[in-house]
Amino acid sequence: MSDYYFKRFEDRVPPPPLEHSRPVEIAWQVLALCSLIAGAIYIHWRWTASLNPDALWFAIPLALAETCAYLGLVLFTANLWKISDYPRQPAPATINECMREEKGADRPISVDVFIATYNEDEEIVRLSIRDAMAITYPHPIDIKVHVLDDGSRPLMETVARAEGANYITREGNAGFKAGNLRNAMERTSADFLVICDADTRPFPTILENTLGYFRDTDVAIVQTPQWFYDLPEGERLRDVWGRKVGAIGRGLGAATEAVFGEIRIGEDPFANDPALFYDVIQRRRNGANAAFCCGAASVHRREAVMFVALRAYADAIEGASREKRTAIDKLLRRRDTRDPLARWQAAQEQELTPYKFHVSEDIYSTIVLHRDSDRNWKTVLHPQVESRMLSPQDLLSWTIQRFKYAGGSLDIFFHDNPVLKPGLSLGQRVMYLATFWSYFAALWNVVFLIAPMIYLFTAIPPISAYTGDFFGHALPFLVLNELAFMVGTWGLSGFKGKVTYLSSFPISLGALWAVARGKKISFPVTPKLRQDGNFIRLVWPQVVVMIVTIAAITWAAGALAMGVAGYSLGGLIVNGLWGLNNILAMSVMVRAAFWKPPEEREQAIEGVVPA
Amino acid sequence: MKFSEKLRRGRAHLLIVAVMIVTAIVVVNLEDEALTSEVGHHPDHAELRGQ
């Protein structure tokens, strides 16, 4: 193995799935319900008894933002309500155990492992091929590993062949990853597909642990959690302070850790750990059959993928033939609407596309499956990690990835919104709405960032009520909400995810703006290795928020000291703490822009690499 | 996973709760004192709601 930074993490093992404890789940549900009731009382009070009539320009947007955030909370609570793991079954021995109707002579199952690549380092792909070749199964099975190279690189072909994998490429790269997968599907024929990115390294057990779900002949896709095994582990607070200040620092750090528990500086600086997403959000969608495919590390039934393709093909012909029909009708001045000519002409122009050519082709395909009420396709989130992957190691890669997620989801929302279309169950609608709603949150998060600044600069309060009344309504809601989510995500740390959600507002706003203008979200490949450079340009909005908030706090403190009318110590404390919370959230992203791996930092200090 | 480790992972929620409660107590007391010194008696919710 080349001397990659992740070499030293090879021995890491993934964490087990969160234990399902019924008492903890009941505690979460009780707290969540109390929190929602307290929230409803608070929101009602905000609209009916607390708006400042002298500053409605400020009061109404803030109340509106709080209401939107509350609706997001209701959706998120519904998402997290209950763990309902899909029952695991033993690995099937033959294909007929996974089919609705037995077809002819029984035979071993066949599986194609697709490793999609474009421009990633060939040696990284080699590791993925080797791990894919090492997949085991308790019964006879036909596994083929295919490298799908959209970069048509001779070196990639050499590596693939040397490792015993099949090499597939094509002219151009239309449709990017979705087009790449379609091309591979046309050239392969196995019963099941394992989708891997260039850096996805499946564990030997991936098929043994997932193919059992397909005994249920309605199961179309099994998604396994993506696990980044290269997350920086950071340095203990006592060691950081000890290094900087000496023995006193070390002692202070140790004392702080004795009170609050272990504190690690620089741990997972980009909040990449997807455990909250897979082990909590996606896993708890199993009950509503609403877990969606995330691409890498998922197993697909070929029949289901082809079903999606045929459904999309039929819909496309239907849509296109309607247009053709109108044109032909106009031309021939006739009224017969069942025109085979129009359908034939439309069919000639459509292509059968197993995975939709879309930046979020994985979630899109899942939606098509879920919407089909005739076949009742199911998707499963298997809670156990079955592969390892590399995480974005710099803010540019991270931003590209997040922008693709946000832009892709919002594009679906605006152009093919499943929430309002027929086919989905109520539970599925709620889950998809929760996903889309989360990307709109940047709109109200901006209000939450600006609101304390406005008060601190102008002394104009958005709320006109006795302070005791305000806290009497707000505090029970806020406290119950914090406690509910602590219990609801018991065993995971959600703090970094929460602050990143707030501080990544420019990405979501950018995606929203791009989609609203009808701009197509591009498909750039997320870099798999660390990109060099200064990424401060990516966080200038966060820096502005920090500077203006600090200025606002300073201004208000000065005004209060000078006895300027309208300012109060209480107002300064509340809005100052709110502003500090915002600064803390922004600082996580700003720090990430400057983050360097420890070894690179040490080299820079020693002058080996320019800082 | 040990209970203490789970608690460690959830500590941010507890810290936020503590900060919010302390802030609320301090601010309400400050405002009450200010109002008491202005009107001469402890503020009553119903009395102040219309302001």
Automatic annotation (TrEMBL), chain A:
The chain crosses the membrane at residues 26-43, 55-81, 436-458, 470-493, 499-517, 538-560, 572-594. This is Glycosyltransferase 2-like domain-containing protein. The keyword Nucleotide-binding does not apply. Its main location: membrane. Keywords: Glycosyltransferase, Membrane, Transferase, Transmembrane, Transmembrane helix. It comes from Croceicoccus pelagius. It is a multi-pass membrane protein. CDD domains: CESA_CelA_like. Signal peptide: none annotated. GO terms for molecular function: hexosyltransferase activity.
Automatic annotation (TrEMBL), chain B:
Keywords: Membrane, Transmembrane, Transmembrane helix. The chain crosses the membrane at residues 12-30. It comes from the Bacteria. This is Uncharacterized protein.
